[in-house]
Amino acid sequence: MMELQEIITLVRRTKAFVANRERAGHIQVKGPADYVTQVDTDIQNFLAEELGKMTPDIQFLGEEEGLHEMTADTYWILDPIDGTTNLIHDYQHSVVSLALYEKGEVTLGIVYDPFREDVYHAQKGQGSYLNGKQIHVSGAQTLRETIVSVGTSPYDREVADDNFRRIRRVFDRSQDIRRTGTAALDLAYVACGRTGGFFEPLLSPWDFAAGMLLVMEAGGKVTNFDGGPLSLLKRGSVVATNGKVHEELMEVLK
User: Fold this and answer.
1) Contacts of 252 (CB under 8 A, 6+ apart)
2) Domains (ranges, CATH) in the chain?
3) pTM tops 0.90, yes or no
């Protein structure tokens, strides 16, 4: 297995693609509120090629090729840009999210924020880190003591009514809510204690794979809306917290 530092260095090289505003303007529409820019494609192609050289025996699953059956039990899971709509508008909250899935679990997660030069990383059993310094979830004991970030699942407008009712209930119980438009960054913020929780009704594995490990290794908890484990093979709901407010947040979401 290659060195962690090599992979982080590789992921940081994607900043040059993100900084290219002209490429961010080359937009294809995949579905309602679902876009892909040339930057997404450039980063996916770049990382697929470079990771292929580093780890030729590991398969690759990237957002821009969509969910499909993997024939091996170990593969990279990449979201080349989580926050594509943000990128289009230069609303500077977009990250690169890379995870390594091995035999049923995520063993490595990296979330790179090129606008702040922040690298969040976690390895299974070894804690979570921001720019090399260990991070931990917040100490909030109740929702009243924290802020909660929310996702609107904009590609799935049919869940909006239920979701906005949930958001209202969480808003009433917490100090406030936040919406960044990138689930991977929201999960990183839970991991480093900036927020006490995050939820979204429908996300794909590349949205949450790396961030999920960050939260768990920082001492938090991640489940679906039913309280069960997340599937890395299909879309589903995600609730991530510092662990202490998990039951309270789940109760509010129900």
Assistant:
1) 143, 166, 169, 170, 173
2) 4-132 (3.30.540.10), 143-253 (3.40.190.80)
3) yes
